[in-house]
Protein backbone atom coordinates (compact mmCIF):
# COMPACT_ATOMS: atom_id res chain seq x y z
CA UNK A 1 0.00 0.00 0.00
CA UNK A 2 1.12 3.56 -0.67
CA UNK A 3 0.50 6.70 1.39
CA UNK A 4 0.53 10.41 0.66
CA UNK A 5 2.37 12.56 3.19
CA UNK A 6 0.84 16.03 3.52
CA UNK A 7 3.21 18.57 5.07
CA UNK A 8 3.00 22.30 5.83
CA UNK A 9 5.65 24.59 7.31
CA UNK A 10 3.81 27.15 9.43
CA UNK A 11 4.53 29.52 12.30
CA UNK A 12 3.72 28.51 15.85
CA UNK A 13 0.53 30.52 16.01
CA UNK A 14 -1.01 28.68 13.07
CA UNK A 15 0.29 25.26 14.06
CA UNK A 16 -2.68 23.98 16.03
CA UNK A 17 -5.23 25.39 13.58
CA UNK A 18 -3.51 23.57 10.71
CA UNK A 19 -3.28 20.41 12.83
CA UNK A 20 -7.03 20.55 13.47
CA UNK A 21 -7.68 20.64 9.73
CA UNK A 22 -5.25 17.83 8.90
CA UNK A 23 -6.77 15.77 11.72
CA UNK A 24 -9.97 15.49 9.67
CA UNK A 25 -8.18 13.75 6.83
CA UNK A 26 -5.06 12.13 8.27
CA UNK A 27 -4.72 8.48 9.25
CA UNK A 28 -4.29 8.11 13.04
CA UNK A 29 -3.80 11.80 13.72
CA UNK A 30 -1.12 14.32 12.88
CA UNK A 31 2.51 15.02 13.81
CA UNK A 32 3.81 18.46 14.82
CA UNK A 33 7.54 19.07 14.98
CA UNK A 34 9.75 22.10 15.33
CA UNK A 35 11.35 22.91 11.98
CA UNK A 36 15.11 23.26 11.86
CA UNK A 37 15.73 22.32 15.51
CA UNK A 38 18.21 19.50 15.02
CA UNK A 39 21.11 21.04 16.93
CA UNK A 40 22.97 19.82 20.02
CA UNK A 41 22.73 22.72 22.39
CA UNK A 42 22.06 23.69 25.96
CA UNK A 43 18.74 24.94 27.25
CA UNK A 44 19.70 28.63 27.27
CA UNK A 45 20.89 28.36 23.66
CA UNK A 46 17.79 26.67 22.24
CA UNK A 47 16.73 28.57 19.09
CA UNK A 48 13.18 29.93 19.05
CA UNK A 49 10.48 27.71 17.54
CA UNK A 50 9.67 30.11 14.72
CA UNK A 51 8.48 27.41 12.36
CA UNK A 52 6.64 24.12 12.82
CA UNK A 53 6.13 21.24 10.43
CA UNK A 54 2.65 19.72 10.55
CA UNK A 55 2.29 16.34 8.83
CA UNK A 56 -0.53 13.91 8.12
CA UNK A 57 -0.90 10.83 5.95
CA UNK A 58 -3.76 9.68 3.70
CA UNK A 59 -4.07 6.48 1.64
CA UNK A 60 -2.99 6.88 -1.98
CA UNK A 61 -6.22 5.51 -3.41
CA UNK A 62 -9.28 6.66 -5.36
CA UNK A 63 -10.39 8.91 -2.47
CA UNK A 64 -7.15 10.92 -2.43
CA UNK A 65 -8.03 13.52 -5.13
CA UNK A 66 -11.27 14.48 -3.38
CA UNK A 67 -9.51 14.61 0.01
CA UNK A 68 -6.88 16.98 -1.43
CA UNK A 69 -9.55 19.31 -2.83
CA UNK A 70 -11.41 19.44 0.51
CA UNK A 71 -8.17 19.94 2.44
CA UNK A 72 -7.00 22.78 0.23
CA UNK A 73 -10.37 24.50 0.48
CA UNK A 74 -10.17 24.34 4.29
CA UNK A 75 -6.60 25.68 4.20
CA UNK A 76 -7.70 28.48 1.85
CA UNK A 77 -10.32 29.57 4.39
CA UNK A 78 -7.74 29.38 7.19
CA UNK A 79 -5.43 31.50 5.04
CA UNK A 80 -7.74 34.45 5.67
CA UNK A 81 -6.50 34.40 9.29
CA UNK A 82 -2.90 33.21 8.92
CA UNK A 83 -0.19 33.26 6.29
CA UNK A 84 -0.66 29.83 4.79
CA UNK A 85 1.84 28.06 2.50
CA UNK A 86 0.70 25.49 -0.04
CA UNK A 87 0.86 21.92 1.28
CA UNK A 88 3.45 19.56 -0.16
CA UNK A 89 2.47 16.02 -1.11
CA UNK A 90 4.93 13.11 -1.08
CA UNK A 91 4.00 9.55 -2.02
CA UNK A 92 5.56 7.00 0.34
CA UNK A 93 5.47 3.21 0.22
CA UNK A 94 4.09 1.75 3.42
CA UNK A 95 7.35 0.02 4.28
CA UNK A 96 9.14 3.39 4.05
CA UNK A 97 6.53 5.35 6.02
CA UNK A 98 8.09 4.98 9.44
CA UNK A 99 11.60 5.44 8.06
CA UNK A 100 11.30 8.52 5.83
CA UNK A 101 11.75 11.11 8.59
CA UNK A 102 14.88 9.53 10.11
CA UNK A 103 17.27 11.38 7.80
CA UNK A 104 16.55 14.65 9.63
CA UNK A 105 16.31 13.33 13.20
CA UNK A 106 19.54 13.99 15.08
CA UNK A 107 20.63 14.00 18.76
CA UNK A 108 19.52 16.96 20.85
CA UNK A 109 20.11 18.25 24.33
CA UNK A 110 17.66 19.85 26.76
CA UNK A 111 17.10 20.63 30.42
CA UNK A 112 20.04 20.28 32.77
CA UNK A 113 21.46 16.93 31.64
CA UNK A 114 19.03 15.32 29.18
CA UNK A 115 20.47 13.98 25.93
CA UNK A 116 18.12 12.40 23.39
CA UNK A 117 19.64 10.34 20.62
CA UNK A 118 18.04 8.35 17.80
CA UNK A 119 18.49 4.67 18.50
CA UNK A 120 20.42 4.23 15.27
CA UNK A 121 23.02 6.95 16.06
CA UNK A 122 25.91 6.06 18.37
CA UNK A 123 26.37 9.30 20.32
CA UNK A 124 26.12 9.29 24.09
CA UNK A 125 26.37 12.88 25.25
CA UNK A 126 28.61 14.11 28.06
CA UNK A 127 29.52 12.43 31.36
CA UNK A 128 26.57 12.70 33.73
CA UNK A 129 23.97 13.03 30.97
CA UNK A 130 20.67 11.19 31.21
CA UNK A 131 20.59 9.57 27.77
CA UNK A 132 17.30 8.60 26.14
CA UNK A 133 17.72 6.41 23.06
CA UNK A 134 14.63 6.64 20.91
CA UNK A 135 12.97 5.16 17.85
CA UNK A 136 9.45 6.64 17.88
CA UNK A 137 8.38 4.89 14.67
CA UNK A 138 4.86 6.12 13.89
CA UNK A 139 4.15 7.21 17.49
CA UNK A 140 4.27 10.87 18.51
CA UNK A 141 7.26 12.02 20.51
CA UNK A 142 10.71 12.61 19.04
CA UNK A 143 11.69 15.33 21.52
CA UNK A 144 11.85 18.03 18.84
CA UNK A 145 8.50 19.61 19.71
CA UNK A 146 8.68 22.50 22.22
CA UNK A 147 5.98 20.94 24.44
CA UNK A 148 7.88 17.67 24.76
CA UNK A 149 11.05 19.56 25.66
CA UNK A 150 9.28 21.65 28.30
CA UNK A 151 7.53 18.67 29.90
CA UNK A 152 10.83 16.77 30.10
CA UNK A 153 12.51 19.77 31.70
CA UNK A 154 9.69 20.03 34.25
CA UNK A 155 9.97 16.30 35.00
CA UNK A 156 13.71 16.66 35.50
CA UNK A 157 13.26 19.48 38.01
CA UNK A 158 10.43 17.71 39.87
CA UNK A 159 12.30 14.43 40.17
CA UNK A 160 15.35 16.23 41.55
CA UNK A 161 13.04 17.62 44.26
CA UNK A 162 11.10 14.36 44.72
CA UNK A 163 13.30 11.36 43.90
CA UNK A 164 11.43 8.06 43.91
CA UNK A 165 8.11 9.64 42.94
CA UNK A 166 5.44 7.63 41.15
CA UNK A 167 4.76 9.02 37.68
CA UNK A 168 1.91 8.86 35.17
CA UNK A 169 2.52 9.46 31.47
CA UNK A 170 -0.98 9.93 30.03
CA UNK A 171 -0.82 9.71 26.24
CA UNK A 172 2.65 8.18 26.20
CA UNK A 173 3.25 8.16 22.42
CA UNK A 174 6.83 7.02 21.79
CA UNK A 175 7.47 6.67 25.54
CA UNK A 176 9.95 9.55 25.64
CA UNK A 177 8.45 11.06 28.82
CA UNK A 178 8.03 7.69 30.57
CA UNK A 179 11.62 6.68 29.82
CA UNK A 180 12.89 10.10 30.82
CA UNK A 181 11.02 9.93 34.13
CA UNK A 182 12.38 6.45 34.87
CA UNK A 183 15.95 7.51 34.13
CA UNK A 184 15.54 10.72 36.12
CA UNK A 185 14.68 8.84 39.32
CA UNK A 186 11.00 7.84 39.35
CA UNK A 187 10.30 4.70 41.35
CA UNK A 188 7.58 3.59 38.92
CA UNK A 189 5.89 4.90 35.77
CA UNK A 190 2.49 4.05 34.32
CA UNK A 191 2.44 4.75 30.57
CA UNK A 192 -1.00 4.85 28.95
CA UNK A 193 -2.13 5.52 25.39
CA UNK A 194 -5.28 4.75 23.44
CA UNK A 195 -3.21 3.96 20.33
CA UNK A 196 -1.78 0.40 20.23
CA UNK A 197 1.05 1.65 17.98
CA UNK A 198 2.13 3.99 20.79
CA UNK A 199 1.94 1.20 23.37
CA UNK A 200 4.22 -0.97 21.21
CA UNK A 201 6.64 1.91 20.58
CA UNK A 202 6.85 2.71 24.30
CA UNK A 203 7.50 -0.95 25.15
CA UNK A 204 10.25 -1.27 22.54
CA UNK A 205 11.93 2.00 23.53
CA UNK A 206 11.73 1.17 27.24
CA UNK A 207 13.40 -2.16 26.52
CA UNK A 208 16.15 -0.43 24.51
CA UNK A 209 16.78 1.92 27.45
CA UNK A 210 16.81 -0.87 30.08
CA UNK A 211 13.92 0.62 32.08
CA UNK A 212 11.17 -1.83 31.15
CA UNK A 213 11.10 -3.12 34.73
CA UNK A 214 10.09 0.36 35.98
CA UNK A 215 7.28 0.89 33.47
CA UNK A 216 3.71 -0.40 33.45
CA UNK A 217 2.79 0.11 29.77
CA UNK A 218 -0.84 -0.33 28.79
CA UNK A 219 -3.49 0.61 26.29
CA UNK A 220 -5.83 2.86 28.25
CA UNK A 221 -7.08 6.35 29.06
CA UNK A 222 -8.13 8.60 31.92
CA UNK A 223 -11.26 6.48 32.31
CA UNK A 224 -9.01 3.46 32.97
CA UNK A 225 -7.30 5.26 35.85
CA UNK A 226 -10.52 6.60 37.30
CA UNK A 227 -12.01 3.10 37.32
CA UNK A 228 -8.94 1.77 39.13
CA UNK A 229 -8.73 4.67 41.58
CA UNK A 230 -4.98 4.96 40.90
CA UNK A 231 -3.10 8.09 42.04
CA UNK A 232 0.39 9.42 41.29
CA UNK A 233 2.91 11.88 42.72
CA UNK A 234 3.54 13.37 39.25
CA UNK A 235 1.33 13.28 36.16
CA UNK A 236 2.74 14.17 32.73
CA UNK A 237 -0.02 15.06 30.26
CA UNK A 238 1.38 16.25 26.93
CA UNK A 239 -1.68 16.15 24.67
CA UNK A 240 -3.72 19.15 23.45
CA UNK A 241 -5.38 22.02 25.29
CA UNK A 242 -8.92 21.01 24.31
CA UNK A 243 -8.29 17.41 25.45
CA UNK A 244 -6.89 18.57 28.80
CA UNK A 245 -9.93 20.81 29.33
CA UNK A 246 -12.26 17.91 28.52
CA UNK A 247 -10.38 15.63 30.92
CA UNK A 248 -10.73 18.20 33.69
CA UNK A 249 -14.49 17.80 33.34
CA UNK A 250 -14.03 14.06 33.84
CA UNK A 251 -12.04 14.42 37.07
CA UNK A 252 -8.44 14.59 35.87
CA UNK A 253 -7.22 16.07 39.17
CA UNK A 254 -8.23 12.99 41.14
CA UNK A 255 -5.44 10.87 39.62
CA UNK A 256 -2.86 13.12 41.33
CA UNK A 257 -2.08 12.52 44.99
CA UNK A 258 -2.52 15.19 47.63
CA UNK A 259 0.52 17.44 47.30
CA UNK A 260 1.31 15.96 43.89
CA UNK A 261 1.96 17.85 40.66
CA UNK A 262 0.55 17.68 37.15
CA UNK A 263 2.54 18.89 34.14
CA UNK A 264 0.37 19.81 31.16
CA UNK A 265 1.63 20.43 27.61
CA UNK A 266 0.37 20.87 24.07
CA UNK A 267 -0.88 24.36 24.90
CA UNK A 268 -0.59 27.56 22.86
CA UNK A 269 -0.09 30.72 24.93
CA UNK A 270 -3.54 32.06 24.01
CA UNK A 271 -5.10 28.88 25.47
CA UNK A 272 -3.19 28.93 28.76
CA UNK A 273 -5.70 30.95 30.79
CA UNK A 274 -8.56 28.66 29.73
CA UNK A 275 -6.56 25.55 30.59
CA UNK A 276 -5.60 26.95 34.00
CA UNK A 277 -9.24 27.75 34.73
CA UNK A 278 -10.19 24.16 33.87
CA UNK A 279 -7.39 22.78 36.06
CA UNK A 280 -8.75 24.75 39.02
CA UNK A 281 -12.17 23.12 38.58
CA UNK A 282 -10.60 19.68 38.98
CA UNK A 283 -8.82 20.51 42.25
CA UNK A 284 -5.45 21.65 40.90
CA UNK A 285 -3.73 25.00 41.49
CA UNK A 286 -1.53 26.22 38.62
CA UNK A 287 1.70 27.70 39.95
CA UNK A 288 4.20 27.80 37.08
CA UNK A 289 4.39 28.27 33.31
CA UNK A 290 7.29 27.28 31.07
CA UNK A 291 7.49 28.68 27.55
CA UNK A 292 9.29 28.29 24.25
CA UNK A 293 7.95 31.00 21.90
CA UNK A 294 4.15 30.61 22.10
CA UNK A 295 4.10 27.02 23.40
CA UNK A 296 3.29 26.75 27.12
CA UNK A 297 3.59 23.99 29.70
CA UNK A 298 1.66 24.49 32.93
CA UNK A 299 2.55 22.96 36.29
CA UNK A 300 -0.28 22.62 38.81
CA UNK A 301 -0.34 21.21 42.32
CA UNK A 302 -3.09 19.34 44.17
CA UNK A 303 -3.62 20.76 47.66
Written description of the protein model:
By secondary structure, this protein is α/β, with parallel strands linked by helices. The chain has two domains: about 1-100, Alpha-Beta Plaits (2-Layer Sandwich), CATH 3.30.70.120; about 140-300, Rossmann fold. The chain contains nine helices and 14 strands. The chain has helices at about 10-25, 65-80, 95, 145-160, 175-185, 195-210, 220-230, 240-250, 270-280; strands at about 1-10, 30-35, 50-60, 90-95, 110, 115-120, 130-135, 165-170, 190-195, 215-220, 230-240, 255-270, 285-290, 295-300. Strands 10-9-8-11-12-14-13 form a seven-stranded mixed β-sheet, with helices on both faces. A four-stranded antiparallel β-sheet has the order 2-3-1-4. It has a three-stranded mixed β-sheet with strand order 5-6-7. Strand 5 and strand 6 form a beta hairpin.
Amino acid sequence: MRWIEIALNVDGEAGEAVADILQRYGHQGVAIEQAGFYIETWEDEVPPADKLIVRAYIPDDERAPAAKIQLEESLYQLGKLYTMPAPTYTVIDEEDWAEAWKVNYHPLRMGRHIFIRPLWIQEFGEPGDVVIALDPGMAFGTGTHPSTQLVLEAAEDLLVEHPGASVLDLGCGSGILSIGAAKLGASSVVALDTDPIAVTATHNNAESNDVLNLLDIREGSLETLLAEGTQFDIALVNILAKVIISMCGQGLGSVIKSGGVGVFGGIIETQADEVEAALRTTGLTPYKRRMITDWVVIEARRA
